[in-house]
Each structure stands twice: as C-alpha cells, then as structure tokens.
Amino acid sequence: xxxxxxxxxxxxxxxxxxxxxxxxxxxxxxxxxxxxxxxxxxxxxxxxxxxxxxxxxxxxxxxxxxxxxxxxxxxxxxxxxxxxxxxxxxxxxxxxxxxxxxxxxxxxxxxxxxxxxxxxxxxxxxxxxxxxxxxxxxxxxxxxxxxxxxx
Length: 151
Description:
alpha+beta; TATA-Binding Protein
C-alpha cells in the first residue's frame, strides 16, 4: 500500500513543469500576466513603494541579438539602502545577494512565473543570527511586491 502512494507521489512530481519546482532558496509565484506586463507591474509597485529600480534585463532580447532563442525571461534589479543596509549590518556577506532581484520568465507550458531569493535562504546561506526582525521585514516586502505584480 505504501509503495502505491510513493509511486503516485513520484508520478505527480514528475508530471509538474520544471519551473514549478523552483531552485533551492527561490520563492516562485505564478503570474496572471505576460512576462513584460508582470515586469512592468513590478517596476511600478517598486517605485511606488520607494524602492530604486536599478536595471531591467531582457535575457530573451539578448539571446535574440546573439542569434539564439530563449523564452521570455527578464530580471528586475532593485533595492533601497534603508532596507538593505540593516541586512548587511547583520551579515556583510549578504551584500553579494544585494540588491534584490526578481526573475520573471515564461515556462515551456506558456505559464509566467515571478521568482526571488527567499530571505530565509539568505539567512541560512550567510549564517545571519539575531536579525529576525529585518529578515521578516524583507520577507513581507518581497511577498507584497510579488503579489502586486502577479495578481
């Protein structure tokens, strides 16, 4: 009986698009919009909330210029020293993961996703201790930005 459940779970996991199984430490949210519209919405909400959008990279456009094909893939780089500095004060090595980045991509099924680094993963990666309030603040902000861009 247990083997039957195990086999069923394995079949379900293997039938999921690869993009649903996010990379370690990455939070992914399905978007109701195209890649471009999701990135546009994200930029707008970030600016509205006082974040600085430092760059927007269209990887599919770069691939096209190189004579290659890539499904729609964009990265939005953003931050705010009032948020990032306290995190770096907790563990300066986290600066390698800042400013924040959001990846927006279309998977092989035509579904658009928004992903970002999970602050809990950054906490583990950089052995951040005693800064739970800062981590929670960053976590809440990222969740809100992602929700506003994808719903």
